[in-house]
Specification:
The complex is a heterodimer of chains A (393) and B (182).
Chain A lengths: L3 E5 H11 L4 E4 L6 H12 L6 E4 L3 H13 L4 E5 L1 H6 L1 H9 L5 E6 L13 H5 L6 E4 L3 H15 L8 E6 L7 E5 L3 H7 L23 H33 L6 E4 L6 E6 L2 H14 L4 E6 L1 E3 L3 H7 L5 E6 L10 H10 L7 E6 L9 H17 L7 E2 L6
Parallel strand pairs in A: 2-3, 2-4, 4-5, 5-7, 6-7, 10-11, 10-13, 13-14, 14-15
Antiparallel strand pairs in A: 1-8, 6-12, 9-11
Helix pairs in contact in A: 1-2, 1-7, 3-5, 7-9, 10-13
Chain B lengths: L1 E8 L4 H14 L3 E6 L9 E9 L14 E4 L19 E5 L4 H8 L4 E5 L1 H9 L5 H11 L9 H8 L3 H14 L1 E2 L2
Parallel strand pairs in B: 1-4, 4-5, 5-6
Antiparallel strand pairs in B: 1-3, 2-3, 6-7
The chains are: A alpha/beta (393), B alpha/beta (182).
Chain lengths: 393, 182
Amino acid sequence: MGKRIGLEVSLSAAEAVKMANVDCIAAYPITPQTHIVEHLSELVNNGELDAEFIPVESEHSAMSVSAGVSAVGARAFTCTSSQGLSLMNEIVHIVASMRLPIVMILANRSMSGPISIWNDHTDVMSIRDCGWIQVFANNGQEVFDNVLFAYRVAESQKVMLPLIINIDGFILTHVIEPVEFWEKEQVKQYLPDFKPVYTMHPDRPVTMGGVGMPYVFSEAKVAQDEPLIQSKAEIITAWKELGDVVGRYYKPVETYRMEDAETLFVTQGSFGETVSLVVDALRNEGESVGLVMDRLWRPFPFDEFREATSQAKNLIVIDRAISYGGQGGPLAIDIRSALYKGENQPNITNFICGLAGRDVTINDFKNIYHRAMEKIKENPMEEDFEYYGVRGK
Amino acid sequence: MLEIRLHGRGGQGAVTSAELLALSAINEGKYGQAFPSFGPERRGAPVVAFCRVDDKQIKIRSEINNPDLVLVLDPSILRIVNVTAGLKDDGILITNTKYTADEIGKELGLKCKIAVVNATRIAREELGLPITNTTMLGALLKARAFVDPESLIGPLKDRFGRIAEKNIKAFKRAFEETQLAF
């Protein structure tokens, strides 16, 4: 068993990146991602990590450098938040199409405006359709484990796709909590060296990122989407084997207290653990309630969701992002889509809360539960959504 | 679970104090969680930091609204921030002040348990600076010994290096000099 260390989650994430023995870190500092990059810069500077640290002039360059690094067959890491993600946006899409297994931690922060540095999921949702594998984490331990998982999956020759680890800005990045580190032997056992299919090299010229004329573009895109969809099998295997190595087993969809639960909360990211306490409290009050936590966001685990929710009468989907003009938050929209054709469809209520770091307490989630029950009683088929706790509404 | 809210001014080290407490609990094999009130750093402005300690994994991630302990690093905060807001019925206010607990209780109209220490004086004498964060940790553990005071020595040494000994001395002096009014 690795050593249990109390550390800020940003720093333990950086330590995990060190354990993954990356070759290059290209990043531009932005709140609340800063501590991750600062710590990596220290690790490179003091010789603990033999990698290039490239302090680029913008996030657009951070992703461009990472693309070049990955294309020559080196292991690339980068890290950003909200506006930084927007600035690198065009390259984010391109590296997925180029099948470059870059790993990025996204310290989730709301998209301005109004200008905000605080946490929500509007940044990742703005690039939901960028073609990367995307996972969420509940706590610092999951962040640490998922860094090593990320390289294992992304670089698998069955996958060869970039991967985003979402971690809630401030709420996770700036918290000190215990994390169990891996032993070097465990990393060696779990994460093989990066063996790319093609690399750029002066002696072996190849074209990467070429033009896709209309007669080939659709085929290229299908050839990109299919491996993303199929990557789920590799993801499940990699999480299973991670469990075999360090004893913590992860799944695309996690469940809690599902026994005979009529109503299920559905969460993404660090809300999950707090809601698990709400479920305990409501169970003590005699309510029939459980929890489903979405860990894998892309490829969306449709089958796992259908299975997890198959016995439920009601779902309370908690979104931490807005899909302006859409039918609720992004998570609720996908869940409605996943369950559309099923028999015994549950009533789906959707609450958007915790925007820009607004604190959501156990009492708030209890209020949401009772409000959801009220809404379902009034109009079970209504497919609307509600902003929770907004003044003047 | 024990919940602690720390009040100070930006730059006084309230976040560091919360971190040191969490680390000492983690080093004892317990669970500890520390975090700042998230936002831009504002030197001199009233700030809060939070710490939770428990024997089992800490899953709650919202701010602490009903603390068991409130630690105040800067006496001037008492008059501008309602530091005891939400304090549990048997909770304790531990504050830096040159006054007695009775005087503080009367002036602020408080009914809660109060512990006091003149941390500014101790910090000036031991550190040469009125930075009271490590000093006030001594007062906190005197009021409620939820971790062994010895468990803080390691994190203090790691954090302060060359000036650790001075901070440890201030911490120990505050532990001795804190007056409990309960």
